[in-house]
Write a structure and sequence with these properties.
2 copies of one chain form a homodimer. With 206 residues, the first copy, chain A, is an all-alpha fold. The longest helix of chain A has 27 residues. The two termini of chain A are 34 Å apart. The first copy, chain A, binds a DNA duplex (30 and 30 nucleotides) through helix 2, helix 3 and helix 4.
Amino acid sequence: MFLVSLIPIRPELRLGAPAERSDAARNRERLLQAAKELVSECGADAVTMDMLACRAKVGKGTVFRRFGSRAGLMMTLLSDAEAEFQRRFIFGPPPLGPGAPPLERLIAFGEARIKYVEEYGELARAAAEHSPQNRHDAPPVVLWHRHIEVLLREAGLDRDPWLLALSLSATLDPERVLHSLKVHQIPAERLAASWRELVSRLLKAD
Amino acid sequence: MFLVSLIPIRPELRLGAPAERSDAARNRERLLQAAKELVSECGADAVTMDMLACRAKVGKGTVFRRFGSRAGLMMTLLSDAEAEFQRRFIFGPPPLGPGAPPLERLIAFGEARIKYVEEYGELARAAAEHSPQNRHDAPPVVLWHRHIEVLLREAGLDRDPWLLALSLSATLDPERVLHSLKVHQIPAERLAASWRELVSRLLKAD
DNA sequence: AGTGTAAACGGACTACGGTCCGGTTAATAT
DNA sequence: ATATTAACCGGACCGTAGTCCGTTTACACT
């Protein structure tokens, strides 16, 4: 399923592969624990990989073997919230989940994304940073994009909905939304209202 | 005027300040020359500040005093093209410049931006990279945003045109456009067509 | 020319992300 | 219990952006 294949797969759950060694499991737990502590203590931006290795009593190589990169670490920390968010718009109750008309689902999706960024935006931005190439191709990003595209098609928009969905995704990009919220002090409600206006006008014009 | 105050001001042109010392001027020329060479030889992404200092026969401190950061260097290299682009949509002939109806100007603006990214996108991306804070507040970005906002107002869109302009700016963000062009191999014409579709639907719906 | 000084210089230094590789150890087979 | 081995470990190491500060130098004034 989407959900299973698109969110990061946790190594302890993977089947078919040789079992995880006990020391590896122990270090993974230590790292996750330390990472959560550090993020809540200093904020995601201030956490360095050396700091994490030190706090977890683990070598630096271990940190990078586990997470691949700083962005990977942040994605891992985000994956629970991300999976929950995905569940809500794929399987959850309308208007976010299936059952409502496409326009309403689009509006609800934007609102939910904005709230999501309000809560996890710092992590999300950190997860995107320093990934110049995969930034727009990370699994969750692709899924959001596809979701918007599908809703546009359902609404009858068939002029290159893929690119149109890309434009709408850009509007909801965590970095941009976070910037509006934090730097420009724009309240979430105003962002949501603007999103509603945007997609309403887009879909009404035919 | 906009043009003068919003684009980077070149130190040799600034009045009222103590005149630039001759060694400073010499090093500035050397740095600019070396930077252009290096970018055309290796591409913007591969140029490092050490490399630049070395090629210009100058200390590293001098490089950073001059440009402030890597992003600043890239902006400087971009400033001529940027100023030209600004001139075109502020003073140039319609439909990009004043004189055409707002929708046509918007369409032309998007097309011009896409072509601009095709030509200078690598530099533009490099100029935005590693500026997590100022990325969306750099003078040219603010000017583009304001320009779109003004056109939206002229077209009669008065429901939070500032935020709506922000959404449209997001669509034209160099990093995203470059990603579509290079990674997804989407031809510029298709991007332009999608942009036209987007703004047309937005403005037609009333 | 000589002198004072503020500006500019430059390279050593730090911080950080990321890599590498020789040593260690947990699981498995005997 | 012992041997084997593949996975894992950790920290030394690298490249790069950016800072710092003691030294040099262009300019202005006498």
